[in-house]
Amino acid sequence: MILHRTPTFVPWLRWVVLAAAIVAVAAIVVVRLRPRFTRRGLVGVGTIGAAVALLGGPTAYAVATVGHGQTGSNPMAGPAVPSGGAGGFGGFG
Q1: Going by C-beta distance under 8 Å and a sequence separation of 6 or more, which residues neighbour residue 1?
Q2: Residue 47, in any domain of the structure
Q3: What is the pLDDT of residues 63-84, one digit of tens each?
C-alpha cells in the first residue's frame, strides 16, 4: 500500500516485494504439505522472503529521507512529492 501512493518512486520495488511474497508463501506451503522438507534452508528462504515482502516498502521510504533535511514539527517519510496545497487524508486538495 505504501508503494501504491507514489507509483513513480522505485517502480521495480513493487515487483520485488511481490516476488518475495510469492517465494515466502510457496516455502510455507511446501513446509506445511511436505513436513519432510522442513530443512533449515527452505525455512530460511521463506523467512527472508517474508522479511523482504513486509519491510521492502517501509525501508525504501526510510532510506529516501536520509539525505534530506527536515524542518518544522511534522517530519514526513518517503520521497518528495509535489503538493498542491493542503491535502493528505481527506483534506482539501
Answers
A1: 57
A2: yes
A3: 887 776 767 777 676 776 665 4
Query: How many domains is the chain built from?
Result: 1
49 assigned to some structural domain: yes
Among residues 79, 69, 63, 76, the alpha carbon closest in space to that of 5 is found at: 79
Is the pTM higher than 0.70? The answer reads no
8 A C-beta contact, residue 17 and residue 56:
yes
Provide the residue range defining the domain that includes 46.
35-63
Q: Residue 57 CA to chain centroid, in angstroms?
A: 2
Residues lower than pLDDT 50 in the chain: 84-88, 90-93
Any domain includes 74: no
Nearest residue to 14 via CA among 33, 32, 1, 30: 1
22 lies in a domain?
A: no
